[in-house]
Design brief:
- This protein is α+β, with helices and mostly antiparallel strands.
- It has helices spanning 28-38, 52-57, 59-100, 115-122, 146-150, 192-195, 198-205, 241-244, 278-310, 334-346; strands spanning 16-17, 24-25, 128-132, 136-140, 154-156, 161-170, 181-187, 216-220, 232-235, 249-251, 255-259.
- Required for box C/D snoRNAs accumulation involved in snoRNA processing, snoRNA transport to the nucleolus and ribosome biogenesis.
- It holds the Pfam family BCD1.
Length: 347
């Protein structure tokens, strides 16, 4: 047993030896005072020079150097594998985004989409958007952000169906939203009341949910400029995910609020076409239908006039004729005149 005195308090007999500087201490308090006074880490420096004579006589030094080299090699290999895995995920995600983007029609491009004006107002620095499935406009966040990493929406080959990632938010009217949770790979054909996991919802709400037919669903309007109240779009519990997200805008994936009672203390101004009133939408639809009917009438009338012109020789006298449509007059020959006079006398 060592008979050296503690190098810190200089009173009691030493019990411990610092691995880094080999200072002798007697207690935990003296160890802390030693590290604070001499700024010692207490960790052996594996790169410290050791003479060959010491290596030959001390096996612990050889083992220390060997373990240091093994750990160093292991860290390098782990760094390489992590870098490869992260690169694969980034390239795979970018490829899937390009692959799953629906080809826009010539008369319905994203630039002509009126929803893009709302997106640019709320997200002026948005990098990418895409239109998927039932004309659902998706706003993509930069790669690496948590919501972007959570987005697993895409076509599932095993189930042969398009699946969505959905964020569920338990909510009560007049109270702050509770902690949300995310469900992955929900089929777009699933009804909202069947898609929400009832046991998990009850756990997050802290109460028994009861019958799922009494639940109310609301889609968050991510392009709303209303800052005092949460902007929600009412959804029907009996409609599918595809129908609920038709012509809607989502940030990476839909965020749906679930409540036991009907929510009243919220902003519902974006419920109809993100700020468009039902009258304007009906007017636009009626205008489009009237324009289509007018075009059909024009095409019918033009085809009718063409057919009448083509068969003018066989038409009856009851059909009105225009002067421009009459055939040009010609002079009768002498035999035709005699034949006409004979017909008149016979009659």
């Amino acid at each position: 047993m060592s008979t050296e005195v503690c190098s810190v308090c200089l009173e009691r007999e030493s019990k411990y030896t610092c691995p880094a500087c080999e200072s002798k201490t007697c207690s935990l308090e003296c160890v802390k005072r030693h590290k604070l006074r001499s700024e010692c880490t207490g960790i052996v420096d594996p790169t410290r020079f050791v003479p060959n004579n010491d290596l030959g006589t001390n096996q612990a030094l050889v083992n220390r150097d060997y373990n240091y080299l093994l750990n160093f090699e292991r860290k390098i290999n782990l760094g390489k594998s992590d870098l490869k895995d992260n690169a694969k995920q980034v390239f795979k995600r970018n490829f899937n985004q390009i692959k799953n983007v629906k080809r826009p029609r010539l008369n319905d491009t994203k630039e002509d989409d009126p929803r893009m004006d709302l997106v640019r107002k709320v997200f002026p620095n948005v990098m990418a958007t895409s239109v998927k499935r039932e004309n659902t406009l998706i706003i993509h966040l930069p790669v690496g952000m948590s919501r972007s990493s959570q987005n697993k929406s895409g076509y599932d080959k095993k189930s042969n169906a398009f699946t969505w990632s959905v964020e569920w938010v338990p909510f009560e009217d007049g109270a702050s939203p509770k902690k949300s949770f995310v469900s992955f790979r929900l089929k777009e054909s699933s009804l909202l009341k069947d898609a929400v996991p009832i046991p998990v919802l009850a756990k997050y709400m802290g109460t028994e949910v009861g019958e799922k037919d009494k639940l109310h669903f609301y889609l968050e309007n991510c392009v709303s400029s209303h800052t005092l109240k949460v902007s929600l779009i009412p959804l029907s519990q009996d409609e599918s995910l595809a129908a609920a997200l038709k012509n809607k805008i989502v940030l990476e994936f839909p965020k749906i609020y679930v409540s036991l009672n009907e929510i009243e203390n919220a902003d519902f101004s974006g419920a109809h076409g993100y700020g468009l009133t039902p009258d304007s939408s009906e007017e636009s639809s009626s205008a489009s239908s009237s324009s289509e009917s007018e075009s059909e009438l024009d095409s019918d009338s033009s085809s009718g006039t063409d057919s009448s012109l083509g068969s003018s020789e066989s038409d009856s006298d009851e059909a009105p004729e225009e002067e421009s449509s009459r055939p040009p007059e010609r002079n009768l020959t002498f035999p035709e005149i005699l034949r006409n006079e004979a017909n008149v006398q016979a009659s």
